[in-house]
DNA sequence: ACCTGAACACCGTTCAAGT
DNA sequence: ACCTGAACACCGTTCAAGT
């Protein structure tokens, strides 16, 4: 604590403190006064480095940078370029792990006017992998748009079906089951499938499923595009429906 | 104005006022005092119906309800069940149009602890369409997870490459181009493709592309699943790679 | 019953003043 | 130069008081 009070303030120290507060107490707790408290100084001192907007932008930059590093780190450098899907998949899963450690981050990133510059190295690596595997730049561009939301954690749990204690069926739940028979049946099936596992929905498996859908679709486009550059989209549509 | 002051307050009037403020000035402007101003009353009067948390939850409920209505409305009731992809696609695009009119909504929805009940009719319709087309409930379940983020607008623009005035290449931009050759080339290609169009990225086209990837992938799973219920996932992986 | 005035704790931010 | 005390306008919220 005395050591901390000694070293001079800096943008990096301020952002590190903000990250600490966000991880421990969530984004709403990241106030100028709270961050200053962590740094053993007054709120007004922070204004030499950031105002509130810059503080949140810096926090976004930091967490996205952490994602980029994690996604780029743990890779053996792809023996065969044809394995591009596995390389991209592992990068996306590594990104997801970081986001799971910072569950407050996705909505924060989503409210920023610009993506932080720390995403670019990650995008560069993804484009490099795809282009080297024979994807055109047009396809790589679309892939960035398709995968971006998954990389930045926008794909999250939407559907936590209230973990019903079975048996205690509320009259409200019964009314819903009558009005929505398909969803009611789906819930039954989900409960049955989830026997013995942790939650009702296996979000990890569902993330990987969606990711696989996107990657397989992109691969199909790559193959068609490699053969002929024209009419690729419709040809793929026909091919994947076979 | 006098008429407005006359009619008594109600939860619905409060939420309508909040929606008005959000559309006009964004979510941060939705304060108890600002909403009260629109209703010609004092902030404290709102507390008979909502506190701040309930106000934002109600706002989420309202906007997601609007999506659900829009997505369910404009549909001729699907002559052929085999056209399930077209039906689902149109619903997703209708949902997107609503979100584009309320650009403040996605991050708000993302910060809510639970999805609002107003999504359920939409999920019901999607599951019904898929199951009637021969998808199993397991696949329909995964589809909800794959499509949910797209329906609720979590897929948004991440990559607005700063719309550079060409020619005025900053030294910073040049440094980035050297460090990230693939992204630099991708930007060139994107600029070339965008000649004569509005923005650098055609977000509508990119949304539709990703949506098509997901729908085609689901259709491939449906076909394999219809043939044999076991080992569907790996079979599809092989099939879509052909 | 429905609404409100006064008050409290907290927020972002400015600015003149300290060292 | 770097930091701070006092102050301002604005939040969410409580509660006793009005009608």
Q: Would you kindly provide a written description of the structure presented here, covering whatever features stand out?
A:
The structure is a homodimer of 242-residue chains. By secondary structure, chain A is mainly alpha-helical. The first copy, chain A, has a domain at 51-154 and 192-237: Tetracycline Repressor, domain 2 (Orthogonal Bundle), CATH 1.10.357. Chain A is built from twelve helices and no strands. The longest helix of chain A is centred in the C-terminal third of the chain and has 25 residues, at 203-227. Chain A is flat. Chains A and B meet through α6, α7, α8, α10 and α11 of A and α6, α7, α8, α10 and α11 of B. Chain A binds a DNA duplex (19 and 19 nucleotides) through loops.
At the first level of CATH, the class of the domain at 51-154 and 192-237 in chain A is: Mainly Alpha
Low-pLDDT runs of chain A: 1-5, 162-168, 237-242
Query: How does CATH name the architecture of the domain at 51-154 and 192-237 in chain A?
Result: Orthogonal Bundle
Q: Shape of chain A from CA axes?
A: flat
The helix/strand order of chain A is: HHHHHHHHHHHH
Mean pLDDT of chain A: 85
């Amino acid at each position: 604590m005395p050591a901390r009070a000694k070293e001079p303030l800096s943008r990096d120290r301020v952002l590190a403190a903000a990250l600490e507060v966000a991880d421990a107490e969530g984004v709403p707790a990241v106030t100028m006064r709270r961050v200053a408290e962590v740094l053993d100084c007054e709120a007004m001192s922070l204004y030499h480095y950031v105002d509130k907007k810059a503080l949140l932008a810096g926090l976004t930059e930091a967490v996205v940078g952490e994602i980029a590093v994690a996604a780029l780190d743990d890779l053996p450098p792809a023996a065969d370029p044809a394995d591009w899907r596995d390389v991209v998949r592992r990068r996306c899963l590594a990104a997801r792990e970081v986001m799971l450690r910072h569950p407050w981050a996705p909505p924060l990133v989503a409210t920023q006017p610009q993506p932080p510059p720390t995403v670019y190295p990650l995008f560069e690596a993804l484009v490099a992998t795809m282009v080297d595997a024979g994807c055109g730049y047009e396809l790589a561009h679309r892939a960035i748009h398709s995968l971006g939301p998954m990389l930045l954690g926008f794909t999250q749990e939407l559907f936590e079906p209230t973990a019903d204690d079975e048996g205690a069926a509320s009259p409200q739940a019964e009314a819903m089951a009558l009005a929505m028979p398909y969803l009611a049946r789906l819930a039954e099936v989900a409960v049955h499938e989830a026997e013995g596992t942790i939650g009702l929905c296996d979000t990890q498996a569902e993330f990987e499923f969606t990711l696989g859908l996107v990657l397989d679709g992109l691969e199909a486009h790559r193959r068609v595009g490699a053969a002929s550059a024209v009419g690729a989209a419709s040809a793929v549509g026909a091919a994947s429906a076979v």
